[in-house]
């Protein structure tokens, strides 16, 4: 189901709980219309994977996910022959001629389909998420090229498998290494960064609706202060949401120094970072109000 | 209806195609790799997008043409200049000014209500409505700008802003006593940008000339004072180097025996022999052997150059996976991990200077000792396919150069190159012992700008490949 305009895409995404900014909505729209894959880069935790999930919910397509890691190869990503079954078949073949057996063991019954193959061969349209592609190596990227440009996979024994429905392909990268030119050329590029204050507030309020507005604003301001520091791992949007929920549970009404130090470990996850944040941001917050009388 | 090119410029397909091609040409001249396929994608994307919205137009172009953050930066600068200037250039060519359309000229009996204008601008800033802000900027200039303009754009921008009473932060209550929301600094900067742009347009109209456009490349060709600017140029030079050095071979499959049997492949091979595993297949050996070793001098005698060298190292790490890098002053210290875990250049530079652990008491380079340490600790890993690159000025402060140790390193490595941040004239002057080392190198080059780096790449690419 193709949406008619960028605004509609934005609304559809918002409808399933993902607040996209203009570039994200535009690129998602173009991806559907042009049938090109999308390469999403950005710091960790800004919603790259979420975008793919939201797209799948918004368009009603199933999500096929390939999580990449170092050492991922074709057998785990594309397809693999079920060797054991094939061996058994040969053993059980007995007197049958080799010709028959050969046709049999290289049929689709003996083929184990992995995520990429599933996405291509699926009769229903899907969203294919290739997560953290920067963890793989260049050989893997080279292998993806045929898939990304023509949406087909070549299996030597079976021939070419072409996609009957056009999948929406989203590749995410944490920007830990530079991807090959050939890969980038085939994709539309989107850089997702930490959101602006207003939008982050909206996101926080969407996921923690009971949080009062002033508190939400204060929360986002403090988080932005924390992000400006030179941390090992700056807090991501997911952590903002977690913190919002924590504050709700704590019943806090404002973020004073005490609340902050108590709940700091929700947003800051390294020992050295905690010290730094306590020192720089903690002092800027107000002292807790002393109980009167 | 205004288009992104301004009210008068021709926005139809024939004109647009030519303009876009021109834009891509300019991008290429600034070093952004824009191929034909990207341009075709750009046209296809524009076909789906509403051009009247500047944001959508720009984002659609960016998504298909600028495929990294560095490229995006160049894209932004050029986009502003190209599409902005093109409209203006057309206007100047045709001798059109806005007044000819019958728009009311400024200060002509119409008195603008300042507080109304101020309110409208506040609303537009809150809403983030770029188009509205642009129109309001024009109005503001028409009201206040022309009469007492100082001619200097920056000054005028600030003056207009102050006259309108727009400051960031908390706001005094409105005339009717209601509270006004505070103005975000970023929003205000955005509005100032619009003011600036419109003032420049005005200036162009009045003077009927375009301000000269300075090629961006000039900005970062000189000795880098700000590493981040030059970083992009260095990255580009290094990715060229990567393509041409051709040491980026992955291990040939099944080349050497690993230690572990790969069951899956063995079983697959056994199908050919009726299920009997006659041939064992092995897992390829890991970890991979690095093919490039870089040694970088980070002492004070090469400070400005060492920033450049560090950016070269940074770029190398990005392009080559099999790379080990070391910094040295009096001792050697391996910094491969620092580069692996950190991609931001500023962070890397800071980490190296603080945790480098290479300086000793005096802080002056001791090349002889460095070679001894290198030979002892690291040179067993060298093989005929390795390339060693030394970045330094060979000023060994009167210490023993140990050229023979260097010679042994040169023998072990397949190729050895030296990049010197000083001009050739200075080599061997004072305490520089360049000649002692030069004779053992496969090539010694002067290198302190990206031009030299490209030169190095060319020479190296023309050289015969490493001994197999």
Description:
The complex is a heterodimer of chains A (293) and B (468). By secondary structure, chain A is an alpha/beta fold. Chain A contains 14 helices and 9 strands. In chain A, the strands form 3 sheets. A 5-stranded parallel sheet of chain A has the order 2-5-8-1-9, with helices on both faces. In chain A, strands 3-4 form a two-stranded antiparallel sheet. The longest helix of chain A has 16 residues. Chain B is extended. The N terminus and C terminus of chain B are likely disordered. Classes of the chains: A alpha/beta (293), B alpha/beta (468). At the A-B interface, helix 2, helix 5, helix 9 and strand 9 of A face helix 2, helix 3 and helix 11 of B.
Give the averaged pLDDT of chain B, no decimals.
71
The largest β sheet of chain A comes out as:
5 strands, parallel
Number of helices of chain A: 14
- The Rg value of chain B, from CA coordinates, equals 30 Å
- Tell me about the biggest sheet of chain B? 6 strands, mixed
Low-pLDDT parts of chain A are none
Taking pLDDT < 50 over at least 5 consecutive residues as the criterion, the unreliable ranges of chain B are 1-13, 98-110, 210-229, 245-257, 463-468
Backbone shape of chain B: extended
The topology string of helices and strands of chain A comes to HHEHEHEHHEHEHEEEHEHHHHH
Q: List how many beta strands of chain A DSSP finds.
A: 9
- Residue fraction in strands of chain A: 5-15%
Intertermini distance of chain B:
67 Å
Q: What fraction of residues of chain B sit in β-strands? A: 5-15%
Q: Please tell me the overall pLDDT of chain A.
A: 86
């Amino acid at each position: 189901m193709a949406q008619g305009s960028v605004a509609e895409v934005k609304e559809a995404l918002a409808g399933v709980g993902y607040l996209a900014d203009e570039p994200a909505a535009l690129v998602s729209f173009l991806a559907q219309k042009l049938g090109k894959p999308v390469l999403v880069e950005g710091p960790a935790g800004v919603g790259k994977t979420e975008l793919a999930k939201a797209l799948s919910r918004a368009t009603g397509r199933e999500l096929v996910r390939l999580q990449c890691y170092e050492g991922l190869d074709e057998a785990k990503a594309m397809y693999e022959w079920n060797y054991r079954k094939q061996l058994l078949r040969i053993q059980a073949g007995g007197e049958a001629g080799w010709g028959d057996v050969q046709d049999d063991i290289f049929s689709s019954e003996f083929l184990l389909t992995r995520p990429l193959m599933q996405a291509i061969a699926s009769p229903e349209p899907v969203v294919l998420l290739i997560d953290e592609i920067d963890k793989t190596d260049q050989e893997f990227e080279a292998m993806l090229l045929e898939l990304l440009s023509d949406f087909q996979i070549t299996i030597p024994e079976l021939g070419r498998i072409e996609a009957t429905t056009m999948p929406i392909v989203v590749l995410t990268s944490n920007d830990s290494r530079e991807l090959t030119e050939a890969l980038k050329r085939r994709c539309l590029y989107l850089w997702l960064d930490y959101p602006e204050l207003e939008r982050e507030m909206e996101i926080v309020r969407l996921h923690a609706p009971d949080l009062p507005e002033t508190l939400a604003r204060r929360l986002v301001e403090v988080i932005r202060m924390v992000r400006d520091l030179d941390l090992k791992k700056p807090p991501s949007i997911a952590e903002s949401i977690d913190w919002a929920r924590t504050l709700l549970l704590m019943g806090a009404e404002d973020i004073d120094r005490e609340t902050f130090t108590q709940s700091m470990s929700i947003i800051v996850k390294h020992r050295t970072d905690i010290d730094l944040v306590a020192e720089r941001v903690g002092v800027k917050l107000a002292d807790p109000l002393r109980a009167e009388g | 209806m205004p288009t992104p090119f301004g009210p008068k410029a021709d926005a139809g397909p024939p004109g647009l195609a030519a303009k876009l091609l021109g834009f891509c040409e300019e991008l290429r001249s600034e070093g952004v790799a824009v191929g034909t396929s990207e341009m075709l994608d750009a046209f296809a994307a524009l076909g789906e997008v509403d051009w009247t919205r500047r944001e959508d137009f720009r984002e659609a172009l960016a998504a298909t043409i600028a495929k990294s953050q560095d490229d995006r930066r160049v894209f932004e600068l050029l986009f502003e200049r190209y599409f902005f200037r093109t409209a203006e250039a057309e206007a100047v060519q045709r001798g059109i000014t806005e007044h000819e359309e019958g728009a009311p000229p400024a200060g002509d009996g119409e008195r603008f209500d300042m507080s109304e204008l101020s309110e409208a601008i506040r609303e537009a800033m809150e809403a983030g409505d770029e188009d509205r802000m642009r129109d309001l900027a024009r109005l503001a200039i028409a009201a206040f700008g022309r009469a007492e303009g100082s001619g200097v754009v920056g000054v005028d921008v600030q003056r207009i802003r102050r006259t309108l009473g727009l400051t960031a932060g908390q706001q005094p209550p409105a005339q009717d006593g209601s509270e006004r929301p505070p103005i975000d600094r970023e929003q205000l900067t955005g509005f100032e940008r619009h003011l600036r742009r419109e003032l420049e347009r005005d200036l162009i109209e009045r003077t009927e000339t375009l301000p000269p456009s300075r090629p961006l490349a000039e900005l970062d060709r000189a000795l880098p004072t700000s590493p981040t600017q030059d970083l992009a140029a260095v990255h580009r030079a290094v990715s060229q180097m990567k393509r041409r050095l051709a040491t980026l071979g992955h291990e040939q499959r099944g080349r050497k025996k690993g230690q572990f049997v790969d069951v899956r492949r063995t079983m697959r091979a056994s199908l050919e022999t009726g299920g009997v595993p006659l041939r064992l297949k092995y897992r390829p050996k890991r970890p991979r052997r690095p093919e490039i070793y870089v040694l970088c001098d980070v002492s004070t005698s090469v400070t400005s150059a060492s920033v450049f060298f560090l950016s070269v190292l940074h770029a190398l790490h990005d392009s080559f996976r099999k790379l080990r890098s070391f910094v040295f002053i009096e001792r050697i210290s391996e910094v491969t991990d620092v580069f692996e875990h950190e991609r931001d250049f500023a962070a890397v530079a800071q980490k190296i200077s603080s945790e480098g652990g290479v300086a000793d008491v005096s802080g002056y380079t001791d090349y002889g000792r460095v070679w001894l340490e290198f030979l002892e600790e690291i040179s067993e890993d060298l093989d005929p396919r390795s390339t060693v690159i030394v970045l330094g000025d060979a000023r060994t402060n009167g210490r023993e150069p140990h050229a023979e140790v260097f010679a042994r390193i040169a023998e072990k490595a397949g190729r050895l190159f030296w990049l010197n941040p000083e001009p050739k004239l200075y080599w061997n002057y004072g305490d520089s012992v360049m000649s002692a080392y030069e004779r053992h190198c496969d090539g010694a080059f002067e290198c302190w700008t990206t031009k030299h780096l490209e030169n190095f790449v060319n020479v190296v690419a023309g050289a015969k490949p490493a001994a197999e």
